[in-house]
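[[Encoded backbone]]
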Amino acid sequence: MPNNEDNRRGGDATVYQQKGPGFEEVQLPQLPSCEAKHVLKVYEASLVAERWLNANTLTVVDRSGWTAENGEDGECEKTVTIRFDAKGKASIQNVRTVSARDLAARAKAEKLFENGATKSSNGDRSGAIADYTRAIKLDPKNVNAYNNRGTERQINGDIAGAMADFNRAIEINPLDPDPYYNRGGIYFLKRDWKKAISDLRHHDELNAEDEDAPPIIWAAQIKIGEKEAADRELARFVADHPQPVNAWNAKIDNFLLGKINDQEFLAAMDALEGEKQSEQQCGAWFYLGEKRLFNGDKTGAVEAFRKSVATEEKNCNEYDFAKAELKGLGQ
C-alpha cells in the first residue's frame, strides 16, 4: 500500500505491507541518481507512487530539479519499477529516464495548462478546452489537463467527452483522487447510482479529508433504497471529522441526517454571505430537494431543484444534478 505525502520540495512516497492486523513500512531500494554536478540549490526532490502493475510490482516516479553553480537549472525524472517479494524485500526491475526533450515539452504543456485554467476562471471555456487539448498533445500523460478538460466538456454538455477524459485520467494515474470524483458525478447524472457510489468512495479512500463526496454518496444510496445505510455512512463520516474544513458542508451533512430541520436549514441558507454564497446555495437547494423527494414531497422537491438551477453556478456539480432531477421528474 503506497502513501504519497507532500513536502516542501515536492512529495514523498512510503510503501506499507500488511502484517497481520496492521501495516509495516517497507524499505525501498536505493534509487538511481540523476548525477547532477556542481549543484548550488535543489528546488525539487520528490518520489511519487504512480501505480501497481500487479500485487507485487509498483512503479514510482523520482523527480529532481536543481540550480547549478553557473546559474543554469537542471531537471531529471526517472520512472522506476520496483518488485516486492513475500517478505517485503524490494528490488529494482526497470528504470526509464525521461529525455530532456520530453521534459521541455512537458514544461510547455504545463504553461498551456495554466493558461487554460486562467481562461476557464474568466469564462472562456472554448479557449480553456483548446489550451488543455494542446497541453495533452505535448504531454499525453498530463492527468490535470485531462481532468480539467473533462470538467469543461461536462459544463458544455459534452457528457461523453467528459467521461472519456476522466477515464483516461484514471488510466494514467489510478492514485489521483480527483478524476474519480468527477467520473462519479457523471455516473450520478446518468443515474447509474452504484457506479457513482463506487467512484466517490474510491475518491474518498484516496483523499480522506474530502468533504464534498459524502453527501452525494448519501443521495445516491437513497436512490437505491439504502436510506439506513446512507445515514450510517454519513454519520460515521461526520463523527470522524469533528473539525470540518468547511462548516457549510458539515451543515449540509447534519441536515441530511435530520439533526437540522428544514426551517433551520432555510434560515442558514438565507444567512450565507461571501463570494461562495451562490455556489453554497446551489448545493444546499439540491440536497433540500433530494430530501423532500425522498419524503414524498414532489412539489417541494421541484421547487428546490429549480432554485438550485437558478443560481447558474455551472461549476457546481449539484447544478447539473438538479437539472437532471428536474428532467427525471418531467419538468
